[in-house]
């Protein structure tokens, strides 16, 4: 059976189940129904799926009515900040790790350890590296979903383009050097810029950090206090990225234009037109690919999944991924402080369901063929039916390294991004870019920790 | 007879009532005037004045998202940091002034020229006027999204056309050198509002002045330079002032076209984007409030300067005759 049909069947089964159970159990609710506004960014494409999940939750919790408030991605920062700071915030908020920390440090959300204890929630069902990302200052502020893993360590590739360029499509590159060789052979440029792209080693701070870990580098110490990215490994990484961009991809401006006004989730990405050989996004790729091009997704002979290549010249380097570094990693569901305890408890129940329940987060992520932060969910053998590269996904998850960040991560990331951009545009050398970024970022980080330590002494 | 008497009495009563109403209206004219402006005044107090005062207060505090109770008072610290440490303050101000320096005069000239053309007496002019005003009716967000596609380097209509005629494609929104000129070009799209004001001004110029000039042998150029432009200076002044105030606050187009970071090398980081980033990305609302106060002061001083210098170049037509 085709994976797309399996998705359809799974979704239909879940919907039927929720429709059947919800009315029956709703009658058992004697008290007042708690309305829980669920502010999230799952997007219109996944709204029906989320509604199904909510149906399951309400069937089990008839006294809680979840209002699915899917938000537009545009103006996200503004929407989130104003909602979180208002006197009447949503009942539960989907926030990224830097945002969770920021809200926690400003007292906008509550730690959930007491709920975990009261409900006997078993946190060991999560991968250590996943649940660990949701702690700030020793307190747990959210339960994860989706997974922060598989975010940077996996890449997908177009087998047809490899085949056409004379490479074995079943033998994807393992090292930077092999990737360069294949990318150079595949990339085609015309007077308007790049027509077919081999691989991009270009992007903001998060892309640099992702490649840094495949060169045995580190972004920060484990205590989050000292930045380490301007190491020899860091410099080598950025210089390699610049070399790929300038020597293979015909410069920064061409690679920028290649991706201009495209979005993988919207289906107008060069990938769908066989214009890009190697691509990194994250594990949401599988679901988007299946929705936007179900025939392509159902044909594993045309595409593959591989681990992010490592620096073959560095004997200590290996394929690796990071978790919890950038904004799109380590999402969690956080509970605003201003609500009454019964509403907060309802929010926790929903967070627990959406995070770890087989009919909640597990089913939601399964329907998108992407992994869950819950170990047991990923052990579902049916994953091999809906995702032809499930074994590679699991391999990638095993290689992930958690990165420690602080509430000022947004500002740090901006500084690093701007300096890297200056290197790409030839304003600075790679070394100056990293050193300048490091000096400015470390000063900011030191200032944060000084204030934090003073308040927590 | 009796009927006539009743009618006369009725008319007298009506007249008395009318006179009383007029007297009441006259006695209370100030109150009635206030009643008419009250909705605007209430809106101004609630939605402009109070938020402004609160913003001014916040600019002296370390107000961050979620601050409970009274935000900590830090005096001038935000202002000191802006002028001594904030490298994006200067950059965003430069980008904004660069944009203003070109977009405001270009829009004024463009709108004025189109208004001059639309002031000609030719058949079907109403249709032309409507057509030229249509762009101003299109919502800004929709227009900007269309421009994003139009200016796409590889697939945009403009570059496809340039390549067709043998020219090199331009990286309108991806090159640091081209971003500001692109924004300036896009700003011309909204010329319709100014054009309508110019058109109204042009139509208020008395025809006899042009007739007198024609009798004296004045050419079209003479009429433009010696009659139209001087009599239009109040309108030019008005449009210039509004253009400057609006230009300083440019935000939506840049936000949609190149994102909050301001594009490559922050070439498009305009001042309001910086204000937005400090508030909603870094959650430093006190600092962001200070940035807005600085912008207000800049606009305020500039407006005062313009008003002050307007005595020298704006002709209101009511100058006192010196009797010579």
Label this structure with key terms.
heterodimer, A: 457 residues, alpha/beta, 5-stranded mixed beta sheet, 3-stranded antiparallel beta sheet, 11% strand, B: mainly alpha, disordered C terminus
Secondary-structure topology with pairs:
The complex is a heterodimer of chains A (457) and B (324).
Chain A: H1 3-26, E1 34-40, H2 47-60, E2 64-70, H3 76-85, E3 92-95, H4 97-105, H5 113-119, H6 128-131, E4 135-136, E5 139-140, E6 143-144, E7 154-158, H7 159-164, H8 176-186, E8 188-190, E9 193-196, H9 205-213, H10 232-248, H11 252-258, E10 278-279, H12 285-292, H13 294-297, E11 303-307, E12 321-323, E13 332-334, H14 341-356, H15 358-366, H16 375-378, H17 383-386, H18 390-398, E14 400-402, H19 409-424, H20 430-456
Parallel strand pairs in A: 1-2, 1-3, 12-14
Antiparallel strand pairs in A: 3-13, 4-5, 6-13, 7-10, 7-11, 8-9
Helix pairs in contact in A: 1-2, 2-15, 9-10, 14-15, 19-20
Chain B: H1 2-27, H2 29-58, H3 77-84, H4 87-118, H5 125-137, H6 140-150, H7 157-164, H8 179-187, H9 192-203, H10 207-215, H11 220-248, H12 252-258, H13 271-281, H14 285-313
Structure characterization notes:
- The complex is a heterodimer of chains A (457) and B (324).
- In chain A, helix 2 links the parallel strand 1 and strand 2.
- With 457 residues, chain A is an alpha/beta fold.
- In chain A, 47% of the residues lie in helices and 11% in strands.
- In chain A, the strands form 5 sheets. Chain A has a 5-stranded mixed sheet. Chain A has a 3-stranded antiparallel sheet with strand order 10-7-11. A two-stranded antiparallel sheet of chain A has the order 4-5.
- About 5% of the residues of chain A have low confidence.
- Chain A contains 20 helices and 14 strands.
- Chain B contains 14 helices and no strands.
- Chain B starts with a helix and ends in an 11-residue tail after the last helix.
- Chain B has 324 residues and is an all-alpha fold.
- The C terminus of chain B is likely disordered.
- Classes of the chains: A alpha/beta (457), B mainly alpha (324).
- The interface between A and B is medium-sized, with 29 and 29 residues.
């Amino acid at each position: 059976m085709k994976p797309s049909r399996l998705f359809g069947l799974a979704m239909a089964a879940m919907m039927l189940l929720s429709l059947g159970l919800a009315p029956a159990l709703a009658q058992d609710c004697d008290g007042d129904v708690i309305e829980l506004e669920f502010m999230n960014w799952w997007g219109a494409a996944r709204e029906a799926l989320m509604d199904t999940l909510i149906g399951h939750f309400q069937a089990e919790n008839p006294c809680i009515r979840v209002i699915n408030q899917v938000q537009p991605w545009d103006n996200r920062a503004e929407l989130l900040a104003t909602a979180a700071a208002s006197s009447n915030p949503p009942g539960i908020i989907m926030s990224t790790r830097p945002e969770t920390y920021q809200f926690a440090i400003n007292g906008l959300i509550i730690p959930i350890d007491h709920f975990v204890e009261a409900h006997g929630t078993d946190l060991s069902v999560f991968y250590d590296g996943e649940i660990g990302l949701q702690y700030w200052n020793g307190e747990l502020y959210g339960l994860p979903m989706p997974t922060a893993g598989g975010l940077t360590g996996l890449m997908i590739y177009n087998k047809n383009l490899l085949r056409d360029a004379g490479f074995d499509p079943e033998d994807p590159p393992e090292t930077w050097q092999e990737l360069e060789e294949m990318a150079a052979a595949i990339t085609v440029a015309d007077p308007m810029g790049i027509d077919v792209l081999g691989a991009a080693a270009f992007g903001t701070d998060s892309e640099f950090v992702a490649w840094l870990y495949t060169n045995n580098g580190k972004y920060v110490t484990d205590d989050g206090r000292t930045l380490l990215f301007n190491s020899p490994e860091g410099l080598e990484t950025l210089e390699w990225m610049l070399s790929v961009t300038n020597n293979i991809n015909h410069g920064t401006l061409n690679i920028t234009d290649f991706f201009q006004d495209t979005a993988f989730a919207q289906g107008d990405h060069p990938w769908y037109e066989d214009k890009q050989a190697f691509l990194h996004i994250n594990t949401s790729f599988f679901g988007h690919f299946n929705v936007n091009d179900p025939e392509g997704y159902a044909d594993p002979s045309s595409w593959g999944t591989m681990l992010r290549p490592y620096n073959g010249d560095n004997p200590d380097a290996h394929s690796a991924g990071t978790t919890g570094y950038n904004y799109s990693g380590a999402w969690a569901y956080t509970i605003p402080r201003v609500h009454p305890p019964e509403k907060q408890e309802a929010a926790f129940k929903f967070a627990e369901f959406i995070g770890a329940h087989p009919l909640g987060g597990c089913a939601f992520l399964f329907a998108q063929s992407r992994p869950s932060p819950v170990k047991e969910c990923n052990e579902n053998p049916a994953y091999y039916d809906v995702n032809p590269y499930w074994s590679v996904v699991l391999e990638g998850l095993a290689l992930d390294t958690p990165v420690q960040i602080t509430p000022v991560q947004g500002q740090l990331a901006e500084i690093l991004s701007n300096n890297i951009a200056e290197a790409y545009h030839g304003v600075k050398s790679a070394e100056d870019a990293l050193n300048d970024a490091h000096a400015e970022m470390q000063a900011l980080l030191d200032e944060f920790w000084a204030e934090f330590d003073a308040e927590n002494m | 007879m009796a009927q006539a008497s009743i009618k006369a009495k009725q008319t007298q009563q009506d007249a008395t009532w009318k006179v009383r109403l007029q007297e009441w209206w006259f006695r209370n004219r100030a109150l009635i005037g206030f009643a008419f402006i009250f909705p605007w005044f209430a809106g101004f107090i609630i939605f402009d004045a109070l938020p402004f005062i609160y913003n001014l207060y916040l600019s002296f505090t370390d107000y961050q998202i979620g601050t409970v109770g009274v935000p900590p008072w830090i005096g001038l610290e935000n202002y000191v940091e802006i002028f001594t440490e904030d490298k994006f303050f200067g950059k965003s101000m430069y980008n904004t002034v660069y944009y203003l320096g070109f977009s405001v005069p270009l829009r004024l000239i463009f709108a004025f020229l189109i208004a001059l053309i639309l002031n000609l007496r030719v058949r079907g002019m109403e249709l032309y006027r409507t057509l030229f005003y249509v762009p101003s009716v299109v919502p800004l967000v929709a227009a900007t999204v269309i421009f994003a596609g139009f200016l796409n380097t590889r697939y945009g209509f403009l570059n496809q056309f340039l390549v067709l005629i043998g020219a090199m494609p331009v990286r309108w929104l991806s090159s640091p050198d081209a971003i500001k000129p692109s924004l300036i070009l896009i700003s011309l799209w909204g010329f319709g509002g100014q054009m309508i004001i110019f058109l109204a001004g042009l139509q208020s110029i008395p025809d006899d002045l042009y007739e007198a000039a024609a009798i004296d042998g004045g050419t079209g150029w003479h009429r433009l330079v010696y009659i139209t432009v001087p009599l239009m200076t109040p309108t030019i002044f008005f449009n210039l002032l509004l253009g400057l105030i609006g230009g300083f606050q440019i935000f939506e187009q840049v936000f949609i076209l190149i994102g909050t970071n301001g594009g490559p090398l922050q070439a498009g980081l305009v001042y309001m984007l910086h204000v937005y980033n400090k508030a909603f990305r870094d959650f430093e609302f006190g600092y962001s409030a200070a940035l807005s106060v600085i912008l207000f002061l800049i606009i305020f001083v500039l407006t005062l300067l313009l008003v002050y210098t307007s005595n020298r170049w704006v002709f209101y037509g009511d100058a006192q005759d010196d009797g010579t």
